[in-house]
């Protein structure tokens, strides 16, 4: 079957992939080029309407909105990648250990997961900000810790299914250590569900980063952030609503794309679930 035909058979995966690719493209392009300096304040150019020299206009400080939107994509992707990577590194080994151990150790690991689950990203960010101050690192750690229990639960459930397979018994009889079984047999066979969970957690991280920046607990100024752009534009909601519209659409597109992409990956890895919601 041709690649185009395969894509058309999975419109959810295709649509989600296109939206995610658009956000990533914005972030990558902003590394080398933006129409204007996203942090440059120019009072003479404040509140210009979209068009002309400024595609999406300027904000109340004369900063180019398109440039800030592109740089905000970079900030969002960076925070999401680091936070989700931290969650994977913390949650997946915990889930595998719980699934392979069962018994008291499994119960202890899952209670630790439940304890972490009781602290949402916003609460963790407030606690960490009170101790270490408001910065991007605080937001990444808070989002990562809040996302780790999801990976632990998914990893444990998938590991339990793998451990019931006959090839695990064969590996034990061959004298393989628990670490070798985990690395060579368990981890490769739970990879697909972990990848799907990554897409879900990344969407959550995008929302959490925007919320934290909106509350002043995330990326500090002058670094552009979609949540910070919403905060800066709220006082102009009725006079210049498009200033709220652009970052809001960017957040919505990123979250929708990641959720569609995750659903598409789930259907791709397990065709028996295709069409099930």
Key descriptive features of the protein:
277 residues, MetI-like fold, elongated, MetI-like_sf
Structure description:
This protein has one domain (51-273): MetI-like (MetI-like fold, Orthogonal Bundle), CATH 1.10.3720. It is built from 10 helices and no strands. Helix 2 (11-32) packs across helix 3, helix 2 crosses helix 10 and helix 5 (121-132) packs across helix 6. With 277 residues, it is mostly helical. The chain is elongated, with a radius of gyration of 22 Å. 73% of the residues lie in helices and 0% in strands.
Q: Mean of the pLDDT scores?
A: 88
One letter per element, helices H and strands E, the order comes to HHHHHHHHHH
Q: Any low-confidence stretches, pLDDT <50, length ≥5?
A: none
Going by CATH, the architecture would be: Orthogonal Bundle
Shape: elongated
Oligomer: single chain
Based on secondary structure, the structural category is mainly alpha
Helix content: over 70%
Radius of gyration, in angstroms, nearest whole number:
22 Å
Q: How many angstroms does the end-to-end distance come to?
A: 27 Å
Number of strands: 0
CATH topology-level name: MetI-like fold
Strand share of the residues?
Answer: under 5%
């Amino acid at each position: 079957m041709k690649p185009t035909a395969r894509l058309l058979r999975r419109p959810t995966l295709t649509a989600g992939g296109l939206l995610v690719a658009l956000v990533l493209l914005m972030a990558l392009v902003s590394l080398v080029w933006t129409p204007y300096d996203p942090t440059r304040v120019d009072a003479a150019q404040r509140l210009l309407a979209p068009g002309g020299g400024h595609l999406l206009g300027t904000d109340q400080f004369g900063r180019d909105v398109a440039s800030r939107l592109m740089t905000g994509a970079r900030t969002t992707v960076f925070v999401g990648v680091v936070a989700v990577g931290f969650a994977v590194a913390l949650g997946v080994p915990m889930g595998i250990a719980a699934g392979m151990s069962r018994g008291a150790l499994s119960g202890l690991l899952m209670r630790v997961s439940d304890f972490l689950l009781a602290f949402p990203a916003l609460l963790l960010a407030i606690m960490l900000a009170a101790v270490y101050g408001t910065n991007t690192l605080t937001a990444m750690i808070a989002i990562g810790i809040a996302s780790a229990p999801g990976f632990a639960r998914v990893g444990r459930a998938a590991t339990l299914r793998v451990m019931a397979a006959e090839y695990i018994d064969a590996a034990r009889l061959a004298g393989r250590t628990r670490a070798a079984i985990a690395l060579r047999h368990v981890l490769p066979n739970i990879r697909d569900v972990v990848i799907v969970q990554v897409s879900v957690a990344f969407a959550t991280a995008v929302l959490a980063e925007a919320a934290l920046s909106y509350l002043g607990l995330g990326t500090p100024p002058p670094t552009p952030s979609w949540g910070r752009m919403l905060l800066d534009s709220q006082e102009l909601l009725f006079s210049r609503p498009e200033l709220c519209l652009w970052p809001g659409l960017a957040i919505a597109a990123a979250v929708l794309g990641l959720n569609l992409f995750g659903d598409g990956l789930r259907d791709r890895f397990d065709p028996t679930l295709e069409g099930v919601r």
